[in-house]
Specification:
Length: 187
């Protein structure tokens, strides 16, 4: 597996080694031993699977606060997403900075997102699925969100992933999410 360091400390883009032949392909999507090489020493406790029926679904920015903060290992297993992680660690040199990567079923890339980051993704195709591992269980009382268009973070979503003027598809929860400046500091 190839580890590509991003400009945000602790956030890694991973390119698995894919072995293919006339039958199809094989790859390791997770190996604790391999992830320890990039300083990711955690035990994943839950796998999550998200399906979005339409292109243009935006989910996020989501995170959990301590003591249930989560590290995530995200991959797209069907379709394509624009995956975004934003640094919410106040003592970080990259506080409020973000990184985006296109994760697709075809490119098989993964994003390792440490605790202290908010996570969002925008579906670029219909019938898209992502799967991700987390190292802390879902805890609704610690679940938080920030608006996807927060001006203090300033994520460049481009033309909504090729959607042009088509409206984004958001949940009520994500439409009502607060701005970062209105949130209590947690990291």
């Amino acid at each position: 597996m190839k580890f590509l360091e991003t400009p945000l400390k602790g956030l890694w883009l991973l390119e698995p080694q894919v072995h293919g032949d006339h039958r199809g392909w094989f790859m390791e999507s997770y190996s604790k031993k391999i992830l320890e090489r990039c300083g990711a020493d955690m035990e994943f406790v839950q796998d999550n699977h998200s399906y979005s029926a339409q292109k243009g679904v935006l989910r996020g920015l989501h995170f959990q606060i301590p003591p249930a903060a989560q590290t995530k290992l995200v991959r797209c297993t069907r379709g394509a997403v624009l995956d975004v992680a934003a640094d919410l660690r106040r003592d970080s040199a990259t506080y409020k900075q973000w990184y985006k990567a296109e994760l697709t079923a075809a490119n098989k890339k993964l994003l390792l997102i440490p605790a202290g980051f908010a996570h969002a993704f925008l579906t670029l195709e219909n019938d898209t699925e992502i799967q991700y591992k987390v190292d802390a269980y879902y805890a609704p009382e610690y679940d938080r969100g920030i608006r996807y268009d927060d001006p203090d973070i300033g994520i460049d979503w481009g033309d909504w992933g090729g959607l042009g003027d088509a409206p984004l598809i958001l949940s009520e929860k994500d439409m009502r999410a607060p701005l970062l400046r209105d949130c209590e500091p947690v990291f």
